[in-house]
Specification:
Length: 529
């Protein structure tokens, strides 16, 4: 089973019916258009649904980044012109949302946890919609640990949102909605500047009449262009940006009508340029940032286990200098000097300059490969302490190798005895160190009998921990004369382990769903009695 199929099945447990069928169709079809999605929904659900429900479902999945719209060209910005693809990464990232909310609650408080939860429900929304929803709906039945609603003021929620944006835990949704708004602005600017004005073209720019468009003429031209093109825009339909913002605007307008709030336009002088721009932006949770935070914590734990607690403190001071990695696959950080890290460390740990340089050398050693040296430190008299980079790629590779060996060694009690698991782990470590080995070399390095070595290698091949490479001696590729080398591809092994873990998660969630349904049926039967 591929990773996409696993993500589709895991996502299908959370969303049944219409969203599940739309995700399945988009995943199997590849890059279908919106009319193709509508046609498939009509064929599957017949009279149980209509095009409005399908459109709402597609928009909701797009806001959650499960479906990603793809624009074929720059000029195509209508909903009917886009194709959609199923984002496997975003679907699997949804599994971390609960841990992400718990992390935000422990680090930043309940208000920030409410905001992250609301973003998780809506997918993407404007900040004003999030604040209005929290003040109305919390505490809900799904969050019993939150404070009563009178504890959440608009000012405190705005400060919490600013804190989340500053830490990049909430970011602007970079999708086709933003792209469509930018295209609308560009088309408007081009149409205004292309219309003739009454300015004298012969004057210089200093006098303000050298072919420049003054403000009154620009506003008049923009109004005239909008009045002329309004029927055409109405016939062509809404843009993707308008469609994606429709659910948020609709809910906000309904809330205002229900509470008797009249729309009063705010004075233009009271709104700054940043506030007016943020009001129209769609924001979403940045689970990629949370993944980078988990990666940083894993590196700190690994350094503490391999070296000591002081080396962990040194690495923490380095992370305060370089910050968190922007992406989970970042290979190295920005360059920093030893003096910068030492100045941060002095406020927490009392240590000498010479001992600090020894810790830097230990972090840069091949044992942990946590730092890569850019400019070496010649002696303790060097005031800069050398220049370094955090080697994310090197240290994560060591962590992955140790994790794979430990995963094989622990294993499952039903798959083999403890001795067989240790033998397989020793073979894994030998292949990690020597890259490519044949069966005889593996037996010699691991000091194993040939029979036990052969059975262990075959078990690792069946479980897809290692792979083979053929070295033919003759052009006919005969199996009698071909040498088979065993090697370990980290990407191949990690992918198979992740798929195995996702299967476990899928089984647990399926079992959880069955148990919840049984309890619901029993509770309903007791209520009937």
């Amino acid at each position: 089973m591929s990773t996409k199929d696993l993500a589709l099945r895991i996502w299908g447990i959370n969303c049944l019916g219409h969203p599940k069928e739309v995700c399945r169709f988009v995943s199997n079809q590849g890059h279908p258009t919106f009319p193709e999605i509508l046609r498939n929904a009509r064929n599957v659900f017949k009279s149980k649904t209509n095009d409005a429900k399908t459109t709402e479902c597609v928009l909701s999945l797009t806001l959650h980044s499960i479906l990603v719209p793809i624009v074929p060209s720059v000029d195509c910005k209508k909903l009917i012109s886009a194709r959609y693809t199923f984002d496997t990464k975003a679907a699997l990232y949804r599994l971390r949302l609960g841990a992400f909310i718990q992390y935000v609650r422990e680090e930043l408080g309940d208000e920030c946890a409410c905001i992250i939860t609301e973003f998780g429900i809506r997918g993407a929304a404007t900040l004003e919609d999030i604040i209005n929803s929290i003040t109305q709906n919390y505490p809900g039945s799904f969050l019993v640990f939150l404070l009563p609603p009178d504890q959440f003021t608009i000012g405190s929620l705005q400060r919490a949102i600013d804190m989340l944006i500053a830490r990049n835990l909430v970011c602007q949704k970079k999708d086709i909605a933003t792209y469509a708004r930018e295209q609308d602005a560009e088309l408007t600017a081009q149409s205004v500047t292309s219309r003739p004005t009454r300015g004298r073209g012969g004057k210089s720019a200093r006098g303000g009449r050298g072919g420049k468009v003054n403000r009154a003429a620009a506003l008049a031209g923009e109004k005239e262009w909008k009045d002329l093109d309004r029927p055409v825009v109405k016939r062509r339909g809404k843009t993707l940006g308008d469609c994606l913002e429709l659910p948020g605007k609709k809910s906000k307008d309904e809330w205002k009508r229900g509470n008797g709030v009249t729309r009063r336009p705010a004075p233009k002088e009271a709104l700054s340029a940043v506030d007016s721009e943020r009001k129209s932006m769609l924001f979403c949770v940045n689970i990629e940032r949370y993944t980078c935070i988990l990666q940083q914590q894993l590196i700190l734990q690994y350094v503490e286990e391999r070296l000591n607690a002081t080396s962990r403190k040194v690495l923490e001071s380095i992370f305060t200098v370089v910050g968190i990695a922007p992406h989970a696959r970042t290979e190295s950080s920005a360059m920093f000097s030893g003096q910068q890290a030492f100045s941060r460390l002095q406020s927490e740990v009392e240590t000498t300059w010479t001992l600090f340089l020894k810790h830097l050398a230990a972090l840069a050693s091949p044992r942990v490969s946590c730092l890569s040296v850019v400019t070496p430190c010649d002696s303790a008299l060097d005031a800069t302490g050398g220049e370094y980079r955090v080697n994310y790629k090197g240290v994560m590779q060591l962590i992955v190798e140790d994790t794979i060996a430990a995963f094989v060694e622990v294993g499952n009690a039903e798959e083999g005895t403890e001795r067989e698991q240790r033998v397989c782990a020793s073979i894994i470590r030998a292949l990690i160190k020597h890259k490519k080995l044949d069966e005889q070399e593996i037996a010699n390095i691991c000091m194993l009998p040939e029979k036990i070595c052969r059975s262990s290698v075959l078990a690792l091949l069946n479980d897809r921990f290692i792979c083979t490479q053929e070295v033919p001696r003759k052009p006919d590729h005969s199996t009698q004369t071909t040498i088979y080398l065993f090697t370990m591809n980290l990407e191949y092994t990690v992918k198979n382990i992740i798929d195995f873990i996702y299967v476990i998660i899928l089984n647990l969630r399926s079992r959880q769903k069955v148990v919840v349904m049984k309890h619901a049926v029993r509770a309903g039967a007791k209520d009937d009695k």
